[in-house]
Amino acid sequence: MRMRKKKHLEEKLADCGNKIIYMDREDKNFVTSLEQKNYIDYKEIFGNDNPVQLEVGCGKGQFICELAKQNPDINYLAVEKASNVIVDAAKLIIDENIPNVIFLRGNAEYLNCYIPDGTISRIYLNFSCPFPKKKYACHRLTNSRFLKIYKQLMTADAEIYQKTDNRNFFEYSIEELSKFGFILHNVSLDLHNSDFEGNIVTEYEKRFSEMGFPIYRLEAYLPK
């Protein structure tokens, strides 16, 4: 179901100031628009040279905000394509005065037009849409076309962290990551009943866990 547009959305987005970078493309042709590069200047937006990590599909920002508070010496980029949602996430970091998070509004297909190659030290994929119909598999954030983008963005020792409640999507992700050459470790089929420490619970995770669904998690890296 399509989310109803917030009242005064444009004004609320404007109030977020420079906390949101808009990945808007003047060229509406997807192929040629990828040729337009508008790389982010980390020093300019964060004011330091700290490592940068990325969350793709940040929702209302609960996870990334808590992560940023726990790790003030790491900078975070958080991607969300829905303006209705990202405005809440940006307001959260403003209200809590969290300086090391910047949001990118737009589609993940454009990430390598804005993020410089080889600069992301970790990628988080939390409860991405599983797109269960096979004909929509190319839209899954662990599909090979997205893995190609991530590989381009990642540092040599970077990792991908994924969490989901959807077993079929998790199995699909394992297959795609493995075919692409990623090595998997710390794989859990029931995160909340494991000995994993330091888990930050997302909005969706809390809901699904309370409903009795197991949470699946993995870490993946490319061999050097």
List its salient traits.
224 residues, Rossmann fold, 8-stranded mixed β-sheet
Number of helices: 9
CATH architecture descriptor text: 3-Layer(aba) Sandwich
Rg to the nearest angstrom?
17 Å
Shape designation: globular
- Structural class by SSE content: alpha/beta
Strand content: 15-25%
Oligomer: single chain
Report, as a whole number of angstroms, the end-to-end distance.
Answer: 43 Å
How many E strands?
A: 8
Summarize this structure briefly.
It is built from nine helices and eight strands.
Fold and architecture overview:
The structure is a single chain. The chain is α/β, with parallel strands linked by helices and 224 residues long. It has a single domain, classed as Vaccinia Virus protein VP39 (Rossmann fold, 3-Layer(aba) Sandwich), CATH 3.40.50.150. The chain has nine helices and eight strands. The protein has an eight-stranded mixed sheet, sandwiched between helices. It is globular.
Q: What's the arrangement of secondary structure elements?
A:
Blueprint lengths: L8 H7 L4 E3 L7 H4 L8 H5 L5 E5 L5 H9 L4 E6 L2 H13 L5 E5 L5 H4 L5 E7 L17 H10 E11 L2 H14 L2 E6 L14 H8 L5 E6 L3
Parallel strand pairs: 1-4, 2-3, 2-5, 3-4, 5-6
Antiparallel strand pairs: 6-8, 7-8
